Amino acid sequence: MATAIYPGSFDPITLGHVDIITRASHLFERIIMAVAQNANKQALIPLSQRVTLAKKCVGHLSNVEVESFDGLTVDFAKQHSARVIIRGLRAVSDFEYEFMMSQMNKNLDPEMETLFMMAGLEFQFLSSSMVKEVADLGGNISGVVPPVVYEYLTKHPVRPKAKG
Ligand code: COA
Predict the structure, then answer these.
(1) Residue 150 and residue 132: Cα distance in Å, rounded?
(2) Is 106 a known active-site residue?
(3) DSSP at 123
(4) Per-residue pLDDT for the chain (164 aa), expressed as one digit of tens each?
(5) Of ligand 1's atoms, which has the minimum distance to the CA of residue 94?
(6) Measuring from atom 4 of ligand 1, which residue has the nearest CA?
(7) Residues 30, 90, 106, 127: which is the catalytic one?
(8) Cα 49 to chain center, whole Å?
(9) Atom of ligand 1 nearest to the CA of 11
(10) Positive or negative CA dihedral for 63, 80, 70, 85?
């Protein structure tokens, strides 16, 4: 149980993510926040910026590191001698996707365990997409993202590209 990884897109990191990693940091000796390049999702914030923001948000947690990765999560975990993948679960809607992902990861590496932590009650409604949409439309997101993310989104409006 020494090292765990906490993978995600973190596009951007929200207070919901910080809540999960803070609670997890009390359970493991070392946690690596793994910021995915993630070909499946069209990220709006460049990978290097997502890493920089995440580092600033968890800098106060002495046993948490932040790294980017491209490729399989299980390979990244193995390279860092981690056998536990931490994932946050919000409402029931997350379950099916998370269940499939954990089974696939188990299939890829039978020694890998996924540990689910319930997102804090106040963050159950939160998603990175919603944060970006509200920020883009001029809404106040200061209550759901760390100050550095608030500042970043204020300075770098992230309007999704129009389709078609
Ligand atoms: N509080 C608030 N929001 C939360 C949250 C919490 N505790 N936990 C997750 N979320 C939100 C995120 O904001 C995000 O919102 P969005 O969909 O609007 O962007 C959503 O839940 C899921 O984001 P995240 O947790 O970052 O996961 P992801 O689905 O973007 O990334 C990876 C999943 C990166 C772990 C997965 O794609 C992966 O492993 N990729 C690497 C390739 C690989 O190994 N593929 C095979 C996997 S079986």
Answers:
(1) 10
(2) no
(3) G
(4) 699 999 999 999 999 999 999 999 999 999 999 999 976 778 889 999 999 999 999 999 999 999 999 999 999 999 999 999 999 999 877 899 999 999 999 999 999 999 999 999 999 989 999 999 999 888 999 999 999 999 999 888 766 555 54
(5) 21
(6) 127
(7) 90
(8) 14
(9) 19
(10) negative
